[in-house]
């Protein structure tokens, strides 16, 4: 009887996920369709890109190069904010600008000392945004983009077309993550799948829904709207800064989030341990640092992803049949994301094991927080000021 009740609970959960959660599993919110503004008719607003960079010397040159190759017809400049790097990031950024013959379009700033109450990335972004707003002619839009993102030549043009057409305050692309190593093939598509489950893109893109999310790797923001909403100061302590920015701006107008082939991350995750560190940095913050939310998440993930294969392999009767059916539906639901990342469809059958791995990452995130290492990124721990960071061995 208990087996059957668990099977029925899992069935109800998956009926909801597949039929009533914004079709997140279909991965159909994409930037493929071109907006209806013609290239000769559009108003091309001025834009400044802000790139916060901490120890990114190895990859920032490619990012700057891809931005300088944009076919955008309006005014476009780039601000790199060197966030206390120790590897020559600022020099690499300047060298990339010189190599592209565009030194006049790239400004490299040093982030001031990190004050209490700010996360490092947001403080660096705040420095760049403040510089842009102080210009004699401030830009109409800000492109907040990470140092590991490479953009196709038309990316900025299409972002602006969509933003102008729909009056968007925030237009965000979920950059296609690198998916080459075994760890990446196993875990990255599921990462996108779980993000979409948590924040259905179709709901994010509807004005009658409060769901708000963004992908911090590539965000086009209407500058004046950001200022009216309170600026980055309003979210200064947030670890998950992109979703916090989305929530802030959606209170004032429409936002949009979609998958893309135009923007790609070149950041490599060669091992499961590297992906664990990436996820553990923010997972417990997503749960608002609550052990009760963590326990609830573990229970929900177990009923959703672990119970069906357990019933299929070890159950009996109707419970076993339902478990096998749900496991098959689970595998099919991952297929659109697997196709996007061009990896084997067989990974769909491994989704329960992958989900269990992400549960372990969440537990590790909570453990790191309890030992005072929460939110660690490139030597900086969440909540540390730069003075404390500098004194730490």
Give a structural overview:
This protein has 393 residues and is of the alpha/beta class. It contains 15 helices and 8 strands. An 8-stranded mixed sheet has the order 3-2-1-4-7-6-8-5, sandwiched between helices. The N and C termini lie far apart (57 Å). Residues 385-393 have low confidence and may be disordered.
Nearest-integer average pLDDT: 93
Classify the fold: give the CATH topology of the largest domain: Spore Coat Polysaccharide Biosynthesis Protein SpsA, Chain A
The end-to-end distance, rounded to whole angstroms, is: 57 Å
Envelope shape: globular
Count of discrete alpha- or pi-helical segments spanning 4 or more residues: 15
- Portion of residues within helices: 40-55%
- Which structural class should the secondary elements be placed in? alpha/beta
Radius of gyration: 22 Å
Integer tally of domains: 2
The topology string of helices and strands comes to HEHEHEHEEHEHHEHHEHHHHHH
Give the beta-strand count. 8
CATH architecture of the largest domain: Alpha-Beta Complex
Strand content: 5-15%
Q: Sketch the major β-sheet.
A: 8 strands, mixed
CATH class of the largest domain: Alpha Beta
Low-confidence stretches: 385-393
